[in-house]
Each structure stands twice: as C-alpha cells, then as structure tokens.
Amino acid sequence: MKRLNTKKAGLLYGLVLFSYTSYALLDTFVIPHPMKTVLAESANIEATSGIKESIEAKINEKLGLSESAETSLTENTNGNSSYSTGQSTSEAENSSGSAVSSSEANDTSENSANTGGSTNLTASSTVEGGTVIGSYSDSNVSITLKEYREYDSAIYVADVTVSDVSYLKTALASNTYGRNITDTTSDMASENNAILAINGDYYGARQSGYVIRNGSLYRNSSGNRDALAIMKNGEFRFVTEGETSAETLLENGALQVFSFGPVLLQDGSISVTENEEVGMAMASNPRTAIGYLGKNHYVFVVSDGRTSESAGLSLYELASFMKNLGVVDAYNLDGGGSSTMVFKGKIINTPTTNGHSSEERAVSDILYIGGKQS
Question: What pLDDT is recorded for position 373?
Fold first, then answer.
C-alpha cells in the first residue's frame, strides 16, 4: 500500500511540475502582457482588447521568435503622389561605390496633398548598380527601392529622403506596449498607412533594453547594449546603455531608441569584426538594418538568407555593403526570421526561418515612413 501511495505521489508531483513549467513558458513567451509607459505623461497608448492570434498559433509562431531569441528563444497614398512598382525579373550585379545620384529617380509630384513641409524632394538612388524595383515621391518623401545581388544573397535597399525626421516613425503591435504582443510587419504597415516599413528591434523578446518610440519612453532598464538613438534633428547617436540613461536621451531630444545592435558603421568606419555575431546566431542570416547618409537621408536594408537562393549576410558583410552605399552611420536591427520589408502594401523580400518557412514572423514593432506627425 505504501509503495502504491508513493507512486501516486510521484505521479501527482510530476503533473504539478509539468503544469507549472507549461504555465511559466506560456506566461513568458505566449500570454500577452500589456504594460504602461515609464513616463505615463509622455504617451497615450491604449491597450486593445483583441489579440489576433490564438494561444496555439502563438506557440507555433514563437518556435522561431527573433534573431536575439533564437540564441537562447494598404497601399499608402497619402496625398496625390506619384510612384511606380513592379518586381524585376532580372538581378543586376552590384558595383561598389559611394556617390549619391538622382539620375534614376522619378520626378516629384507637383500636386501632392501631403504638404506638411516646404521642401520639395526628388527621389534619389544611393549607388551605381542594383536594379530599381520601385519608387515613390511626394512633396515630403522620396523613396527609391533597389535589389542587389551580393555575397550570394538578395539584398533590398530603400533609399529614403524626407523633408523632416517626423516622417520616420515607429509603431507597436496592436498599438500596445508589452510582452508577447506581436503582429506581422505587413499588418502593422497597413494599419499605420506606411509607405515603407521594416521590422524593428523586437523589444518584446527581451525584458531589458531601452525603448523610446515617437518621443515616448516605454522602458528604461539597461540591456548593456549599444543602442541607436534617432534624434529630433534626424541624426543618429550611438550610446552604451547604462552609461547614458533613457531619461537623459529623452530629455536630449531622442525620438526613437532601438536596443539590438551591434553598431555596423560609425562615422564611415566599420565597427564590427569579421567574426562578430549576434549572440550565437549563425554567421550568415537574413538581416535588417538602417543607415544614415546625411541630413534627413536614410537607407533601409533587408537581406534574405538561409535558403539555397540567398545565403544571407554576416554582420561584417552587411557593414561592408552599407559602407559601399555611402552610409555614414548604420545599426543592425532584429534579423533572422523577423527580417521583412514592406513597400506600398507589398512584402518585398522573402521572410524565412531556418529556410523552412517563407511566411512572415510576427514581431513587436516596426520602423516606417508615413505622413507627418501632428
């Protein structure tokens, strides 16, 4: 009888332990946790009541998570704009160089309803080589989208010029800051009428690292990373978390702060070594990065990877490629299965996780180009 009771007790203990472990995993990686901003007066984000994915879908979705977690876990026509799209059927080899040119760009529309600024822009092209696969222009935003073939990989580059940095925005999944709240880059782009969007730093995959979005401070705990601050004057500023507080960055005029990294280029010099990597991630990955060329002039870069068609880039290769584009400062965002670029409602690249799935991964946030903030 005692042996039988001991066996039952063991089974009960095992059941309790399994239940607790399962709940802990769901709570950490699946169950949504909306949170308040660090500075409540600096944001007015309303928690939405419906999270699109079911718990089961989220479990499958989280099997990949983000590049950082892998190592341990509609068309916008804002104004009467002119643009052209269409996926090229051929790939041109990239010839390196650093001269900025506008010879391949469309003319700016003279009758745009988007007149938030006084600067008339002309869509530009970053560098010789590559194939133009899309463009957009209005009185405040110009974008030239190119596809390159380098390092046995497909690389997509959006050359962006804006009249004011307020056109460079961020958005959170479900317009809610918190843990395990995710959506696809394309859905978030559509909900925010984004002309162009890329995935952000997937802040929700970590419980530390500064988060400032559109001038609101959401998280001030240090992740001991080199963070990117995009300032009110449009310039990039790299800081080491812990050495400069998030509150100080906000006071000094930071509009966006991303915590992922590493820094790829600083003042025109490559900041990563040939063997440097994000945690224990594979050496060649899909990548997402943003670069600064000059006043209100940026590039969004996304590369495919982990497939037979596109090997992916190392951090050093990504930095070298962006340097050849003439980029002065560049920062690595979340990559791997998260890497996604959306232009005018269309997914431009081929998002993939471990080469097995070509579907988008749901992420916490995006960086996008849209209409001027009020």
Answer: 52
